[in-house]
Write a structure and sequence with these properties.
With about 450 residues, the protein is of the alpha+beta class. It is built from 22 helices and 11 strands. It folds into 4 domains: about 180 residues, Beta Polymerase, domain 2, CATH 3.30.460.10; about 100 residues, Orthogonal Bundle (cca-adding enzyme, domain 2); about 60 residues, no CATH class; about 50 residues, no CATH class. A hairpin with a 2-residue loop joins strand 4 and strand 5. Helix 14 crosses helix 18 and helix 17 crosses helix 19. The radius of gyration is 29 Å and the shape is elongated.
Length: about 450
């Protein structure tokens, strides 16, 4: 648990060191751009690492964002020691919750609104292209050399005597200044072709450019995406769909020939961009509509192509059904173009499909009457149901199961078409049309 006195003492010590050494001004950047509670946490972590005579560093995206003047709530920390031990001590300090991964000697600490990944410094060896790497504990120097891009291969020391020192052995600050995405070595995309998707994601998110040699290597190694299993590709796609403007990344992916590796029929075109924008306009500002995005992405596909993509990406059952339903509803849209369509017909055309699939078809269609009919279903028709139940019908003398089912169906259609509007009117309809025929 936090001790107010200990936090104040730690903060004063680190502030004096920042003033004394003026270490690349990153002390000031940390203090200015991160919440005080998070700064205190990092300083406490540095103190623990010092006590164990181990190097501790803030690494990766958090350092990049600090240098870009952007805030971050997710931190990556690397220790030249045991990451799980450090995580357990920090969990006691913050009363946070940790999830450990003993195989990789890593841990994640969730505390307050923050998520901190703690990793043991390591080297990675790729036995074959596309395989997960073999890991060996190592130093921060080697750890940074295993990373994807120069702008993500920087570290800031959190130890007391070196607090704020920037380790930039691969020229990340220079590439930040020139807005470049650059790999660290010639075999980067060969070792791990998922970096191709990440390169495009960072390029578009940051409004940077692929460094010319990196672009050459990316084009050369696009075929290496075939070495990556569907689970890992799905993760990259999910990350892209979590971006603010995923359509920019997908457009770039199509332009470079990366998107067709998912499916040749996928498009990152102007239509997709417009539909993604419409999706954001109807979605909650705090929610990224990933399921709607991916359903719109697969919209041009046939049922067979959709099944292939579902199988390759191994998406969960709910999303798989949404994608199937999206294509099935798309194939029914011609029936929704009739302006005189009765509500009951609209209901039966759309009932049983996932809500997301129906919404996607409303977004995807450019025909006002189709949008109108779908919206009627979403806003009203899907909630309609008879007041009378099967038990009520039995009490009225209808005893056969099939007859009860047909009667309930007739009542539903009468409700949908507004021929009856109350329980009493339903009773009269049953007495008139059903019991009268007995």
């Amino acid at each position: 648990m936090y001790s107010l006195i200990s936090c104040v003492i730690i903060q004063k010590v680190f502030s004096k060191l920042c003033i004394m050494f003026k270490l690349n001004n990153l002390c000031n950047k940390i203090e200015e751009q991160l919440p005080a509670k998070l700064v205190n946490f990092m300083q406490k972590a540095g103190q623990i690492a010092d006590n164990q005579e181990q190097g501790l560093y803030l690494v990766g995206g958090a350092v990049r964002d600090l240098l870009l003047g952007q805030s971050t709530l997710d931190l990556d920390m690397v220790i030249e020691g045991n990451a799980i031990d450090l995580a357990q001590q920090l969990a006691d300090f913050t009363e946070g919750k940790i999830k450990i991964h003993p195989r990789f000697n890593t841990a994640n600490l969730k505390w307050d609104k923050w998520s901190i990944d703690l990793t043991t410094a390591r080297t990675e060896t790729y036995v074959k292209p596309g395989a997960l790497p073999e890991i060996t504990p190592s130093t921060i120097t080697n750890d940074l050399s295993r990373r994807d891009f120069t702008i993500n291969a920087m570290a800031v020391s959190l130890n007391i005597n070196h607090y704020g020192t920037l380790n930039d052995q691969h020229g990340g600050t220079d590439d930040l200044e020139h807005k470049l995405i650059r790999v660290l070595h010639e075999k980067s995309f060969t070792d791990d072709a998922t970096r191709i998707w990440r390169a495009l994601r960072y390029e578009q998110r940051l409004d940077f450019h692929l460094e010319p040699d990196t672009l050459r290597l990316l084009k050369r190694d696009i075929h290496m995406l075939d070495t990556i299993n569907g689970d890992r590709i799905r993760y990259e796609v999910e990350c892209i769909l979590g971006e603010k403007y995923p359509e920019k990344i997908l457009h770039r992916a199509e332009e470079l020939g990366v998107l067709p590796k998912l499916s040749p029929a996928l498009k990152g075109n102007k239509w997709l961009g417009e539909k993604f924008q419409q999706t954001r306009e109807i979605s909650s500002p705090d929610t990224t509509p990933k399921n709607l995005y991916i359903a719109l992405l697969v919209y041009p596909l046939t049922s067979t192509e959709t099944e292939r993509l579902i199988s390759f990406l191994r998406v969960n059952k709910v999303l798989a059904q949404t994608l199937r339903d999206t294509i099935n509803v798309k194939n029914k849209l011609i029936s929704l173009t009739d302006p005189e369509l009765k509500p009951a017909v609209i209901y039966h055309l759309l009932h049983g499909y996932s809500r997301h699939a129906v919404i996607v078809n409303a977004i995807a269609s450019n025909l006002p009457i189709v949008k109108q009919n779908i919206q009627l279903f979403l806003d009203k028709l899907r909630y309609v149901k008879p007041t009378l139940t099967g038990n009520d019908l039995q009490k009225m003398g209808i005893t056969q199961g099939l007859q009860i089912k047909k009667t309930l169906q007739k009542l539903l259609e009468a409700r949908l078409n507004e021929k009856v509007n109350s329980k009493q009117e339903e009773i009269k309809l049953v007495e008139k049309q059903i019991l009268a025929n007995k």
